[in-house]
Amino acid sequence: MSGSLKGLDIVSIRDFSREQIEQILDVAVKMVPIAKGEEKSTELEGRVLGSLFYEPSTRTRLSFEAAMARLGGRTLGFDEPKGSSVAKGETLADTIRMVDAYSDVIVLRHPQEGAARLAGHFAENPVINAGDGAGQHPTQTLLDLFTIRNEKGGIDGNHVVIVGDLKYGRTVHSLSEALSMFGAELTFVAPPTLQMPKEHVKHIESRGLKPRISNSLDEVIGDADVLYVTRIQKERFPDPAEYQKVAGAFAINRTMLREAKKDLIVMHPLPRVNEIDPDVDDTDHARYFVQAFNGVPEDGASLHGAWGDGMKEFKVTPIRNGTVIDHIDVGMSLKVLRIIGVRGDVSSTVSVLMHVPSKKGAWKDIVKIEDRELDPKELDKVALISPDATINIIRDYNVAEKFVVQVPERVKGIMRCSNPSCITNKNEPVEPEFVVETKKPLALRCSYCDRLTTDIAENIV
Ligand code: ASP
After folding, report:
1. What is the pLDDT of residue 311?
2. In which residue ranges of the chain is CATH 3.30.70.140 found?
3. I want to staple 325 with a disulfide (CB 3.0 to 4.6 A). Which of 275, 367, 383, 460 is the partner?
4. Which fold has domain 13-133+296-306?
5. CA dihedral defined by 456, 457, 460, 461, rounded to 10 degrees?
6. What is 322-404's CATH topology?
7. Ligand 1: distance of its center to the CA of 273 in Å?
8. What three-state secondary structure class fits 10?
9. Which atom of ligand 1 approaches the CA of 233 most closely?
10. Whose CA is nearest to atom 4 of ligand 1?
11. Ligand 1, atom nearest to 231 Cα
12. What is the pLDDT of residues 152-165, one digit of tens each?
């Protein structure tokens, strides 16, 4: 599979090409300031995430919720099925059909392998697998790859040692498959009973790689660039006595890392139980909390991918007659619609694309309006809130005219003054009037009270 990600389920990392994975990682880079709260985004305003967690989670559930909140969307769902109709015996298929109608994308964690695939068959909207039993955990893998790429400057050629429960650990099933797409060198360290399932090893080998299998961390640690530590998945052992035999295997501490390369990074999908001693936390090797933060931009990128222009009501089709406003400053498209008087429901005559990568490597929004051309006042309003917007007038499916909007030198009648005490705000029979003081950032000086107005979008009438 290659090309667009729009509207796709994210169920197994195998469904994705290297090119698609890189595409998501690139989007995640741009999500970082939003994830940190340094930049505001309204990309997912009005969108709802259905978050269904049939198994415990901290990192995954909360980073999806954080990503959704940072992008202006909302989340509904449950974090344990006991309080839902699952406790009454409702099937997964029925729950999915219902939540699909209440939300625009579903994030699902479930104890059964294949649950997310099934959910994908019953949902109209995209489904994201947040872990299906001992199967896969593709979004964890995306943030793991993101972390390795950031910390090591790339993924190819790194020697990644994966240690712990490789049999039941879904994160390492997805991760090892993905790393093999990138040509990383792999070593699997586990007690023999918890080694990587043959099926995964074979698949990795089919990509021309030969993972090393070991049960001694000491033998390989000196040669590792990345040490990926995992928890023994107690909850998946059919026999608790079997768990006792391997509990505590391969715990890492600061002393063991003395043999490691200086720039080795230690990762863990969390939660850790006793696999990494807290004395590792303040070494230069520890990256597991940075990794956990990376869940937010990465999940934001997955949500962006799931939505994109794949949402039915946002689908952009060529229009016969009307106006396409391109290169709108990112996040401003809904304001553009508001100021030109398109309100309420986005009907079939209007399409909005938010957060679209532009050719210049930045982000932009696009609005298409059927059967409507903008009058000069409306063009001025668009210019005031998005000075680089390009207007394409479409007639009979062809671009009949194309131009960049122009910020007028004098602004009259389309804005109110931001000074509440200005005479123009007092019911006098005058139209507010402004002179452009600076263009970037745009500041307008009121010709009556001299006050500068900079929050243009808020004051356009
Ligand atoms: N949080 C990860 C998972 O859900 C790792 C773990 O639980 O050990 O698979």
Report:
1. 32
2. 322-404
3. 367
4. Rossmann fold (3.40.50)
5. -160
6. Alpha-Beta Plaits (3.30.70)
7. 11
8. strand
9. 8
10. 131
11. 8
12. 999 999 999 999 99
DSSP H or E run through 219: helix 217-221
Q: How many A from CA of 199 to the centre of ligand 1?
A: 20
pLDDT average, residue stretch 441-461: 91
Summarize the confidence of residues 249-274 as an average pLDDT.
96
Which ligand 1 atom is the nearest neighbour of the CA of 55? 4
End-to-end CA distance of the chain: 47
Name which residue sits closest to atom 8 of ligand 1, judged by CA.
231
Share of the chain above pLDDT 70, in %: 93
Rounded distance from Cα 276 to ligand 1 centre (Å) = 15
Q: How far apart are the CA of 99 and the centre of ligand 1, in A?
A: 24
- Give me the pLDDT at residue 357, please: 66
Q: How confident is the model at residue 310 (pLDDT cuts 50, 70, 90)?
A: very low
Cα of 88 from ligand 1 centre, angstroms: 27
Residues 6+ apart with CB under 8 A from 78: 51, 52, 53, 84
Q: Ligand 1: residues within 6 Å at CB?
A: 59, 131, 137, 170-171, 231, 269-270
In words, the CATH class of domain 139-291 is: alpha beta
**Cα separation, 405 vs 386, whole angstroms:** 8
Ligand 1 midpoint to CA 448 (Å): 63
CA of 60, closest atom in ligand 1: 1
Beta strand extents in 318-377 (DSSP E only):
322-329, 350-357, 363-370
Residue 44 CA to residue 300 CA, distance in Å, equals 10
Ligand 1 atom at minimal distance to the Cα of residue 230: 8
DSSP H or E segment with residue 333: helix 333-339
